[in-house]
Design goal:
291 residues; 2 domains; five-stranded parallel beta sheet; 5 strands; 47% helix
Length: 291
């Protein structure tokens, strides 16, 4: 039997997989998702979300996909790793994933020009003739090469008098900022930009309680006491991924040690054991200022 079932859960409460059903909406996450959806409906073009490692960007992207699936006028695709060797590889990927038929002239291998023309035709037919909204979401966007950025800039040029034909959402680590800030004709196209910060103490507490409830825990007893949450907050520095990992770690040890509640001393001991093994976290602090 799984450890979480022994504790009275129906599901794993602190899985490290980006399950949108377990996504805790901090005010910042809620604001970013709401604004992205607004920009998509308005067809504003480009939205950029920055965040340090573990601030919830990937789970936010999964939540966005969940929302997009509710509408039949959205055509969307998500790229998980945009590490393409060159412009040709990137264009081929877009054509394949949007299921676009490429019109060939002489050879069986399409040229860059033919790929661009096919994409432009697809965007116009779907976006204007069929009145669909075409969306491309790129996670780990800090990995985008300069040639791929230039390709995206060209695609963002496709527009009507009222709206952009391609809606682009980039979610990336802070390195993405340094990649795009010196490209004025790319930065100028950003209709919404936001930087995700770590959670504060109250948000950490709400996140833990939310995930416990979502996992089906119905007992009246509190699994995590306030002093335990304080230790988790101090150790994680408010980074959601670290919060999830240490909570999962604590619950597994709760079963192994035949205990019934996670208190501050219990968490502190686990952290000390981890530190002795050399696995203590390095300092990861996101600048509070946006860009």
């Amino acid at each position: 039997m799984s450890y979480f079932k022994l504790l009275g859960f129906e599901k794993e409460p602190f899985s490290t997989s980006p399950d949108p059903d377990f996504f805790y909406f901090s005010p910042e996450h809620e604001k970013s998702l709401t604004h992205i959806l607004i920009e998509l409906r308005l067809r504003g073009g480009l939205s950029v979300i920055l965040g340090d490692v573990g601030t919830g960007k990937t789970t936010l992207s999964r939540k966005l996909l969940q929302e997009l699936k509710k509408r039949d006028d959205f055509i969307f695709h998500m790229i998980l790793d945009p590490s393409y060797e060159d412009e040709y590889s990137f264009l081929i990927s877009l054509v394949k994933n949007f299921d676009i038929n490429v019109k060939l002239n002489e050879s069986s291998k399409p040229t860059i020009v033919e790929l661009r023309e096919s994409l432009e035709s697809f965007l116009f037919n779907k976006g204007v003739t069929e009145n669909k909204t075409i969306i491309l979401i790129i996670d780990e966007a800090q990995k985008i090469s300069p040639s791929s950025l230039e390709t995206l800039r060209v695609l963002l040029n496709y527009e009507t008098n009222q709206y952009k034909l391609l809606q682009l959402v980039l979610l990336g680590q802070l390195e993405l900022y340094s990649k795009i800030i010196d490209i004025p004709n790319f930065v100028d196209r950003i209709s919404f930009k936001f930087a995700l910060n770590p959670l504060d103490y109250n948000e950490v507490k709400e996140m833990i309680l939310f995930r416990i409830k979502t996992a089906g825990y119905k007992a009246n007893m509190n699994l995590f006491l306030d002093d335990a949450i304080r230790e988790i907050y101090q150790y994680s520095r408010g980074y959601p991924r670290q919060i999830i990992m240490i909570c999962r770690w604590a619950l597994k040890n709760l079963v192994l040690k035949n205990k019934f509640v996670v208190d501050g001393a219990f968490v502190k001991h686990l952290i000390e054991e981890e530190t002795k093994l050399g696995w203590d976290r390095k300092d990861l602090l996101l600048q509070k200022n946006g860009y």
